[in-house]
Design goal:
heterodimer; A: 770 residues; mainly alpha; two-stranded antiparallel sheet; globular; B: 507 residues; 3 strands; 4% strand
Chain lengths: 770, 507
């Protein structure tokens, strides 16, 4: 065996914020209830409660993050830093206990902080953006409930609370996408979003159920935890105990849920349509937080996927394949969008693909780090888009029709957009460089060369489509609404290329010419832009190991722990010291956990940063920017005749454009194919069966019974039994006629007949069986 | 089964108090509508008060035992006794029947359906209440059967007289269908009686001795009970009375039908069929589970095909009761717990949905989905309540519906010993797919009726939810949320009784 004698380590540090992190979702829940109950009567229509509750959550989350860092810092280098767990019994039945509780570890505090932080900024932004909206109070209520749901999911100790938070987010997504439900397109988008995600949720239900029953015995015996517990499931998955088929199917089922929620191919189609919601919603739910829930699920239950899907195994796994497809197809779609929010939406889909790719390739930490950085720059980009529509383009999001040349009018928005775009493209030293490059680098280092190439190609595409969007929005000539024209609201096209906002708010706008937005809008944008620049420094691998804070704080240590019954989870014993080997830990976790030890996280590798590799990707990014800039300037700026109309002249270009414009025909497949088949032939067929076949049989029997009854009545009843049956019929008849003359006489006869038969049959049965 | 035998009057009073109200109503002049309403209201309030007293005197520490037991001679010739009692499974349903009746009475104060005649209407409702409450406390098969049948007639008249256009067909169908089931059920009861030595009809006695019946005979007896209860639930393919009855019934009838009447069937399975005939239950369970999941998918498809809101809600009952039956068919304590919770949750949620349908009909004079729209604009409160109930119905965690649905799915992964695991896991996946379809038909309904802009030429101001409606609905809405957040309120009562009931299956 490779582990040495056990060594007792110092107890871990706790703290009030860590112990009480569960308050983070509770506060917004209370806030939600208050907004619903009294929001409309308050001076700020309930928005003050929303913002306040988010601020409290932010303080709680920051405190927890700080104390977690302290806890990790105080622990021994090789010590397993146990999560801070508290549980309460929720309910029990049939010998099963459902607990509710918090599980605070590195991953939790990162996402907890991101969610609370961006929720707060977006709520502040919405104060201005949604001012005068007809359903202002509802908006803040839903936004606050969303944050509560997401925070609950993030701190969940068990899969039931996780599911609860997950579904509440889905509900809020539905409510917020459909916020302006007067417009049919919005309500359809809301329905589509909820329904598509819900389709994926079947996987979550099945996966949770399977894991529970598969793991429960093991977790109860070895850890005293239920099979819903995330810790329990994680340890079980790495214990070597699981049946490989069961854990494969469970991981696959859970991954389907992640596909739905995180907009991965082929269930990504709901996310671009979700842009029908108000921009703050797109910024918070549909780019930075809710849509990463699927990624979070994979990261949270990583051991299950690690073992089940054989991550780091010799062949590529389903997560990587799906992620790679998603990265490329979504990036390609971003090129044909005219709606600025849709460009960002496809970009989000593509970036979520990077996170998934990282998880699939064993790059757990870079993927989680990408959640962190992506949240800031993508939220910022969306808020910039909102700022433009709010103050420059008269609520239009159409880059081609209503934007252009805005850099002069909106300096803060422009500057923030630019740095966030650079961060998204992965330009050094902006934040996206550190996270995205880490993912690509690690994918390659773990031996998946093909997927590394896909990642690099995606980076090129990202740079190109973002340059195109930037050019269209901020450079060139002002067009449409930005140039002061006012006829833009008429086009109610299917894609909702404009925010239905205008028709619903009362602050009828005086701003004829484009101008910068107010402080409530620009301040959140500026704060996010600062983070878009600097948040990458939290794990700046190029600067050496001392800069790898995320790795130290967030990554769970793949250490074999003896069973915690020895001294409680706080005083965990270390069985094995990972052998330092040129920066790579080497622990048996994930490969072969020792019999009497427990692992909570698998051992993964970290690629060594090399400038040579980074320079290659940077070169691709700059190439993307340059080529796209030149083409955009030629095509949109000078209307170069060689490019304009190319899709009409060239068959290949036309076919490609059509494929993209029709979104690979996936929407057609789902809406015209699947949905219509279910609602049409299948539902109608079932109903036909109901009405014609089942009821047909019934009516047939009734007809026969009537004939029989008539015969019985005429030939037997009248002559033979005359008494009792007849009397009962008359009784029923008289009862019936007192209320209304309906065919109760016949009912009475039927009844009497049935009971007579029943008695006879019972008698026969008893005689036969004695 | 343990008995707490204190010859108590509480249950008898609670059950028969409505009949006293009926007697008073009989002597109240037909023209004096105010007096009639007061009598009905006072009676149902008094009934709920007795129910509340029952609740407070209930010994929750012994929820698994029969409490308030009373037994006296009734029909000595056939050894049937007046034998009543209440345990953790009965208690929630017993109380639910009382509360729902009260709420329906409150709602009716303002909404007597045409052709009027409140005297007859309230009388029938109170008779119905006695029948429902009695079914849940009966501890003697003949007594159970009598109560079970008492329910039939008032509902038949309610549909037949106060129903919609096609009421005669619907009421007759309802009556004959149920009667058919009852007849077979009676056969099974009689067979049960004779096969256990013709000693007693008492349910505890039969539970003790039923297991001794030869398996072959058990299977046949179970078949009889199965048809009787399955018609009531209703299970596919015995459900076709339900959409017609629901669609044609007046709002009050639909609410009671959905909230309580359907549960008589599932209750019968849990209380009578399964504990009395354990060997047969094992044989039948896969078939029941199969029909349950067919019902889940089939009911959902039925919903998607509907153009009428009320008929859609009716079909959704077929799907939801499928989840309940799936839980029961696992024969595990966990599954049956889920099922009993599901019964209460479905009662509250679908009852509410029918209330809403009634109020929509009253305001829009139609339930055609294509003619509705923009409810959130015209009647925002009603629209939001519909939204909440739709979410609860599709099983959103945090609301009551979830705790009937998800645990039922979960329980199907590991059915009781002796059942085929593969079959049940297939059921589990199919049932999980059913949740997607549930989201589809409910949200589609919501999108078409509540979102968008109002349709139709007549844009007159509509009144939003009024006081009577608020009073009738709030308790149900609160219960939906509270049970969703604190499911233990219910599970802690049900669980001991379920464990007791399923003792024959090891557990």
């Amino acid at each position: 065996m490779m582990f040495a004698a056990s060594e007792v380590l110092a107890p871990l540090r706790g703290g009030w914020f860590l112990e009480n992190a569960w308050l983070a979702p509770v506060v917004p829940t209370i806030g939600f209830a208050l907004i619903v109950l009294i929001g409309k009567r308050l001076p700020k229509k309930g928005s003050e409660i929303g913002v306040l509750s988010m601020l409290v959550s932010l303080v709680l989350a920051s405190g927890a993050a700080w104390q977690w860092i302290q806890r990790v810092g105080a622990a021994n280098e090789e010590q397993f830093v146990a999560p801070v767990v508290r549980t309460w019994t929720w309910w029990q039945a049939g010998g099963m206990q459902f607990t509710i509780g918090q599980h605070i570890d590195g991953l939790t505090v990162v996402v907890l902080f991101v969610v609370a932080f961006i929720s707060t900024l977006v709520q502040i932004y919405s104060l201005e953006y949604l001012r005068g909206d007809r359903r202002y109070t509802h908006f803040f209520a839903a936004l606050t409930l969303f944050s509560a749901g997401m925070l609950a999911m993030v701190i969940a100790e068990d899969m039931i609370l996780f599911l609860l938070g997950w579904e509440i987010m889905g509900l809020c997504s539905f409510m917020l996408i459909g916020h302006w439900w007067e417009d049919g397109a919005n309500s359809r988008a809301a329905l589509k979003a909820f329904f598509t995600v819900r389709t994926g949720d079947v996987g979550l239900l099945v996966g949770i159920s399977m894991l529970f029953f598969a793991a429960n015995d093991w977790t109860t015996t070895n850890l005293g935890l239920s099979g819903f517990s995330i810790r329990g499931i994680s340890a079980w998955a790495l214990s070597g105990e699981p049946n490989s088929t069961v854990i494969l199917v469970a991981a696959f089922a859970l991954f389907i849920a992640a596909i739905g929620k995180s907009g991965q191919f082929p269930l990504h189609t709901w996310l671009p349509d979700a842009m029908a919601g108000p921009t703050p919603v797109s910024s918070l739910l549909h780019s930075s937080t809710m849509v990463v829930a699927g990624v979070f699920l994979v990261a949270r239950l990583y051991p299950v996927f690690f073992t089940g899907l054989d991550i780091l195994g010799p062949s590529s796994n389903v997560i990587m394949v799906i992620a790679a497809i998603t990265i490329v197809i979504a990036a390609a779609l971003a090129f044909v969008q005219t709606d600025i929010k849709r460009v960002l939406a496809y970009s989000t889909v593509s970036q979520l693909g990077y996170m998934m790719l990282g998880l699939g390739a064993g790059a757990w930490l870079p993927a989680v780090f990408h959640i962190f950085t992506h949240a800031f720059f993508k939220a910022c980009l969306f808020l910039c888009a909102g700022s433009i529509s709010h103050s420059a383009s008269h609520h239009s999001f159409d880059m081609k029709k209503d934007m252009g040349g805005l850099r002069k009018h909106m300096p803060i928005t422009f500057a923030s957009w630019t740095v966030s775009t650079l961060a998204l493209c992965g330009v050094f030293p902006f934040s996206g460089f550190f996270s995205k490059d880490e993912i690509i680098d690690n994918v390659g280092a773990n031996g998946y060369t093909f997927f590394m190439v896909v990642g690099l190609g995606g980076a090129f595409l990202t740079a190109a489509y973002m340059t195109r969007a930037t050019y269209l929005t901020f450079f060139g000539q002002a067009r449409g609404a930005s140039a002061g024209e006012h006829d833009t609201h008429d086009a109610h096209d299917m894609h909702g290329a404009h925010d239905a906002h205008s028709s619903h708010d009362t602050h009828d706008t005086k701003h004829d010419s484009p101008h910068e937005s107010g402080i409530l809008i620009t301040a959140p944008i500026a704060i996010l832009a600062v983070l878009a620049i600097f948040s990458g420094l939290f794990n700046a691998t190029p600067f050496g190991e001392s800069w790898e804070y995320m790795k130290k704080w967030v990554e769970p240590r793949a250490v074999v722990v003896v069973q915690p019954s020895a001294g409680g989870p706080g005083a965990a014993l270390v069985l094995s010291l990972p052998e330092a080997e040129s920066g790579y830990g080497d622990s048996p976790c994930g490969k072969e956990t020792p019999v009497d030890g427990i692992c909570y996280a698998p051992q993964v590798n970290h690629a060594k940063f090399k400038w040579s590799k980074a320079l290659l990707s940077l070169a691709l990014v700059f190439a993307g920017i340059a080529i796209s800039w030149l083409l955009s300037a030629a095509f949109y700026g000078r209307r170069d005749p060689r490019l304009v109309g190319l899709t009409q002249r060239n068959g290949v270009a036309r076919a490609g454009y059509r494929l993209l414009a029709n979104k690979y025909y996936l929407d057609d497949l789902y809406e015209r194919g699947v949905v219509r088949a279910v609602v049409g032939p299948m539902a109608q067929g079932a109903y036909w069966f109901n009405q014609k076949v089942l009821d047909g049989i019934l009516h047939g029997i009734a007809r026969v019974a009537r004939v029989v009854a008539l015969v019985v009545y005429r030939d037997i009843d009248q002559r033979v039994v005359d008494g009792a049956v007849n009397a009962s019929g008359e009784l029923a008849q008289s009862a019936g006629t007192t209320v209304q003359p309906i065919q109760s006489g016949r009912v009475g006869h039927y009844g009497a007949l049935l009971f007579a038969t029943a008695a006879v049959v019972a008698l026969v049965f008893v005689i036969l069986n004695t | 089964m343990q008995m707490i035998n204190d010859d108590n009057w509480v249950l008898s009073v609670g059950t028969f108090l409505p009949m006293l109200g009926v007697l008073v109503l009989l002597v109240t002049p037909k023209a004096n509508e105010a007096a009639i309403k007061i009598v009905a209201l006072v009676t149902s309030i008094a009934t709920v008060a007795v129910g509340a007293f029952t609740l407070f005197s209930f010994d929750f520490g012994q929820a698994g035992s029969m409490q308030f037991v009373a037994q006296t001679e009734w029909i000595p010739v056939i050894k049937s006794t007046y034998y009543i009692g209440l345990d953790g499974i009965s208690l929630p349903l017993y109380l639910l029947s009382m509360v729902v009746t009260l709420l329906v009475v409150i709602y009716s104060l303002d909404h007597i359906p045409s052709p009027g005649n409140p005297k007859a209407f309230f009388s029938l409702m109170l008779i119905l209440q006695t029948g429902m409450a009695g079914t849940f406390i009966a501890q003697d098969l003949i007594l159970f059967f009598v109560f079970f049948e008492i329910v039939l007639l008032p509902m038949y008249f309610m549909i037949g007289v106060w129903g919609g256009e096609n009421r005669q067909y619907a009421s007759l169908k309802f009556f004959l269908y149920t009667m058919f089931g009852s007849a077979l059920m009676l056969v099974a009861f009689l067979a049960m009686f004779f096969k256990t030595g013709a000693e007693s009809f008492a349910i505890p006695y039969l539970v003790e001795n039923g297991a001794g019946i030869a398996k072959n005979a058990q299977v046949w007896i179970f078949a009889g009970m199965f048809v009787g209860f399955a018609v009531k639930v209703p299970m596919f393919p015995f459900h076709t009375w339900l959409p017609d009855a629901h669609t044609q019934a007046p709002t009050q009838g639909s609410v009671i039908l959905a909230a309580i009447l359907l549960k008589l069937g599932t209750y019968g399975f849990v209380r009578i069929a399964i504990p009395m005939l354990p060997d047969a239950a094992i044989e039948w369970a896969p078939w029941i589970g199969g029909l349950a999941v067919i019902g889940i998918i089939y009911g959902a498809f039925g919903c998607l095909a509907q153009t009428d809101m009320k008929r859609l809600i009716a079909f959704s009952s077929v799907a939801h009761m499928g989840f309940v039956m799936l839980g029961i068919s696992t024969l595990t304590p966990f599954g049956v717990n889920a099922a009993v919770f599901g019964m209460v949750a479905h009662g509250l949620i679908t009852g509410m949905l029918f209330f809403i349908a009634g109020s929509v009909k009253e305001r829009y004079h139609t339930l055609e989905i294509s003619k509705l729209g923009g409810m959130l604009t015209q009647v925002p409160r009603l629209g939001w309540i519909l939204g909440l109930c739709a979410m609860a119905s599709l099983g959103l965690p945090g609301l009551a519906g979830f705790w009937g649905e998800f645990p039922a799915i979960l329980s199907a992964y590991n059915p009781a010993a002796g059942l085929n695991v593969t079959v049940y896991r297939t059921y589990m996946v199919i049932a999980a797919l059913g949740t997607v379809l549930a989201a589809a038909y409910l949200l589609w309904l919501y999108q078409r009726t509540a979102f968008g802009t109002p349709k139709g030429d007549d844009h007159h101001e509509m009144h939003d939810v009024n006081t009577y409606e608020w009073v009738a609905w709030l308790p149900m809405l609160i219960a939906i949320v509270v049970l969703g957040v604190v499911p233990n309120l219910l599970f802690s009562v049900i669980d001991p009784a379920v464990q007791e009931t399923l003792r024959a299956f090891g557990g």
